[in-house]
Amino acid sequence: MDFILMSLDTTRVALLPQIRILENHHLITGADDTYELTNIGKLIVDEMSPLLDIVDIFDSNIDFWGTHDLGFIPPHLLRRIGELAPYTLAESIPLTEMSEPNKTVLQKAKISNYQTSVTGFLFPTFPSVLAEFRKNGVNFSMVISSELLSKIRAEANDDFRNLLNSDLNKIYLCPEEMGFISFGYNEYFFMIRFLTKNGDYDHNYLVSSSPSALEWGKELFDYYLKNAVPIDIMW
């Protein structure tokens, strides 16, 4: 009881009626000021915790979530979207930084053992970033859209093609239309850029470093990698 009172920052007088309600509904059981969940209580709490996570993540930025397309997220991960918390939403990005990757995420990517990306675009600085990845021994896996593949094959110079075809890199083609701009993860960060519901590009993006977000990002990458086709940029 002392722990419950401290955790809820309440008084015994205020708490006891609520304890009685939970007991009457067979959700908790106890005696001598010690309480625990019943089997029914455990079942409800197991279902309630993910719901509260979802409510929390949407409630903090409901306008952002409500105006962006989430249809590309498979149902089993959409139900667990609360695992992205805590996260940072990068908004009002200066015009001079819109064509550059997030500096903090990039610096961590350069010292990570791996970096993954599923994307329909590349920053202008990507060739130099990829060169640093190779120099630092970063294993890089990238799933790209057919439009991006065509652009690379038409415009990439030989140096960039050789970088892409390094033994450290694995390039795949996404056989389906991407309903998002890009996402990726490394050992330190997960980052994702959404399209709006109108299909418009949005410079805002979400970044999270929580262990649950990294695992969520890995599962999302594996989902798109499953049907992706290995490609040779030189072809």
Structure explained in plain terms:
It is a single chain. With 235 residues, the protein is an alpha+beta fold. The chain folds into 2 domains: 2-37, no CATH class; 62-230, Endonuclease Chain A (Endonuclease, Chain A), CATH 3.30.870. Helices cover 44% and strands 18% of the residues. It has 10 helices and 10 strands. The protein has helices spanning 2-8, 12-24, 39-60, 62-66, 75-78, 103-110, 126-136, 146-155, 158-164, 211-226; strands at residues 28-31, 34-37, 88-90, 114-119, 139-144, 169-173, 182-186, 190-193, 205-208, 229-230. The strands form 2 sheets. The protein has an 8-stranded mixed sheet with strand order 3-9-8-7-4-5-6-10, sandwiched between helices. It has a two-stranded antiparallel ribbon with strand order 1-2. The longest helix is centred in the N-terminal third of the chain and has 22 residues, at 39-60. The chain is elongated, with a radius of gyration of 23 Å. The chain starts with a helix and ends in a 5-residue tail after the last strand. 20% of the residues are buried. The mean pLDDT is 91.
CATH architecture field of the largest domain:
2-Layer Sandwich
What is the N-to-C order of secondary-structure elements (H for helix, E for strand)?
Answer: HHEEHHHEHEHEHHEEEEHE
Strand content: 15-25%
* Oligomerization: single chain
Helix content: 40-55%
CATH topology of the largest domain: Endonuclease, Chain A
* Highest-level CATH class of the largest domain: Alpha Beta
Q: What would you call the structural class? A: alpha+beta
Stretches with pLDDT under 50, minimum 5 residues: none
* Number of helices, where a helix is a run of at least 4 consecutive DSSP H or I residues: 10
Sheet with most strands: strand arrangement = 3-9-8-7-4-5-6-10
